[in-house]
Amino acid sequence: MKKLILITVIIVFTQMAFSQTYNDFDTDSTRTSEPFKPSKTQFMIRGYGHTGLNTLSNDEETESSYVGSAFAPIFLFKHSDRLMFEAELEFVLENNELEVGLEYADVMYVLNKNMTVRAGKFLLPFGTFMERLHPAWINRLPTRPLGFGHDGIAPSSGIGVELRGAFDLGGPKLNYSVYSTNGPRLKDGSEEPEEAGMLLFQNFEDNNNSKAFGGRIGLLPFADSSTEIGFSTYSTSKVGARDSDYENVGAFLYAIDFAFIKQIPAIKGFIDIKGQYNNSNIDDATFTEVHEDGDEEEYTFDNKSNSLYAQLSYRPTMASSDFLKKLELVGRYSNLNTPEGAEWEEQSDQYAFGLNYWLTWRSVIKVAYQTTDSVGGHDGGGTTNGFFVHWAIGF
Amino acid sequence: MMVVVQLMASLYTGQLDSNKHINTEIMKTIYKIVLIGLMLLITGAVIVSCSSTKDKYTAVTDVEDEFKIEKSGAQLWGETCNRCHLAPSPADYNDTDWETISLHMRVRANLTEKESNKILEFLKSAN
After folding, report:
1. Are the C-beta atoms of A174 and A217 separated by less than 8 Å?
2. What is the pTM of this model?
3. Residue A226: what are its φ and ψ, rounded to 5°?
């Protein structure tokens, strides 16, 4: 037995020693292989995250909390020079819970030099804020303007199909997009009576057979692309659930956006002006209000809303001091008017002022003060002041 | 057509504000006009872009380049990226990453093919 083991060990060691002699380093595979050649198919994870401290105070109380640690990874799968899949997830800590959302997930194909088709869930080009400017590392202030986001009147994303592209007009440029999506659904008040008449844009499965159609045309009239004016529409003939009393309620929304960005030597820096006006017009409908004593009362209202924001920022990029070059001053006014007579009636004006410090082109520390005067709304109105310190990073 | 006639009649009698039904119809008509305009624009764009052969396109571009001072990729990078966010540092990604990002941004920001290609070439040359 011992002999057998000894023979086996000798054979194994001999084989190892023999096999080592076949390592011919002159022809080693790592040296003879071709240099690194990128594949046509590419995969990237990009995205952004932010965190910060919010302090909000009104006439009654002051609340202060560290917020955020929001994380929004963007997945890019480039299959060829024309075909790509893109998706963005959003992880947000809110109301003591982790909320996960799918911002967009769509496949795109470049049909020709002037047209690309997208299908899936995509950010809607209704104005420019939600499609281009809302990510925390791009938005110059820690908050969104009134009218966007939760309970906003402007749609942010939709599931459907879109054609988009751009034309060079020999100096000026024109860009366009047209799309069809499931469209919004009307809140009839059965679940949230205080929101009867609002549109819910998260319509993952269409509640009727009527699709929403929309589009945007953007014109950059000057050769330096410093100015862009855009007009967007979004319309559907039915927002109510199939076979319900609200099935034939229609909606028409439009937006006008403006942007001006230019480095002006006379003021030694970049001026950035942005603005957007949103208008929502929903057909009138009759809703039911249930009083505490159980009595029901029908009511209706002129279901029209609008919102506006205008923002000005300045970066002294041509200053002699490296510290000053990284600073940015920003101010924003926004306004929201929801229908008179609705449970969610609100008239709000908001002013926000901020000072940003850009650590890199994609990482910014934002310090901002914001004051909002409201009549009506979820909180019953009044003045709310906020102080924010946020750190946002894109990657 | 009936809606337009109704609109004219309402304007004449000063009853425009009191007739919400007509207002809604007007909005829908305006929307339809805008939509038809958009569809015509896109149809025209498809016809124009699909009708030119590669040879013709190349020839036109050559002639164009002779008489027109084109913007450099660096200039377009400065102008175009800053429309939304600060212009990125070319060194932050490698060539293949920039190709992926360029396609993503071309669609997201509605850039022209020429803008996108020139910016990509600049980023790849400067990283």
Report:
1. yes
2. 0.80
3. -75, -25
